[in-house]
Structure formats: C-alpha cells, structure tokens
C-alpha cells in the first residue's frame, strides 16, 4: 500500500464545458511523484434526499435529526407547521407509514388516532407499508 504524504494542487483551469479542473501532484512516502487530474463539477456531487419531502438536500440546507437527513425547513410540526427545535419535539414512530413526522409540544400528546386524522386532512399520503 502506498502511503500518501502530500497532495499539491499544481494547476487549475476551466475545461470547454466551463467546469473547473485541477491537476495535482501526489507525493508518496517513497518520494515518488504521481500526476492526476480531476473535475470539481457540482454535477458530480450526490446530495442525500430529504426523508420528509424526498427532494435533494444541498449541504447548506442539511439538517440531521433522529439520524435522518432532512431540509431545515422540513423540520416542523406535522399538524401546525410550527418550526421545531431538537429536544422540544417528538418523532411519531406509530405513523411511520407516512414517513417521518415530528410534533411540537402542543401536539405530541394528541392521541395517535386523532393525529392520523389530522395529518390525513393536511394531505399526507402513505409512503410505504400497508395502505388502509
């Protein structure tokens, strides 16, 4: 296995498509120098999908709560749309067939059957599991 000691950016340029390219020198423990080039195209970056709305989440809007990646704007009460903060809300696992749903202090103690009626009225659809 070659141990990487240093990575030097040697040159930067725009290719004919307008994408930034870089040429780098990789200096290994044995002193060998290897040249390589790579693209820094934003099209190459794979953004995770939001667990709530299923759209891509760019890095600047990424929010991880309960080990789920979502948009900051998707972290709201499923009933009243109030913006939530970590530690002041609850994730309802009993309604997981609708995707992850968080509830504010006011609505977290609402009985599950009533919660389901309210979210169906708001237009939430079953994403997976048994459809009623």
TrEMBL record:
<dbReference type="GO" id="GO:0046872">
    <property type="term" value="F:metal ion binding"/>
</dbReference>
<keyword id="KW-0862">Zinc</keyword>
<keyword id="KW-0479">Metal-binding</keyword>
<dbReference type="Pfam" id="PF00412">
    <property type="entry name" value="LIM"/>
</dbReference>
<protein>
    <submittedName>
        <fullName>LIM zinc-binding domain-containing protein</fullName>
    </submittedName>
</protein>
<dbReference type="InterPro" id="IPR001781">
    <property type="entry name" value="Znf_LIM"/>
</dbReference>
<keyword id="KW-0440">LIM domain</keyword>
<feature type="domain" description="LIM zinc-binding">
    <location>
        <begin position="48"/>
        <end position="114"/>
    </location>
</feature>
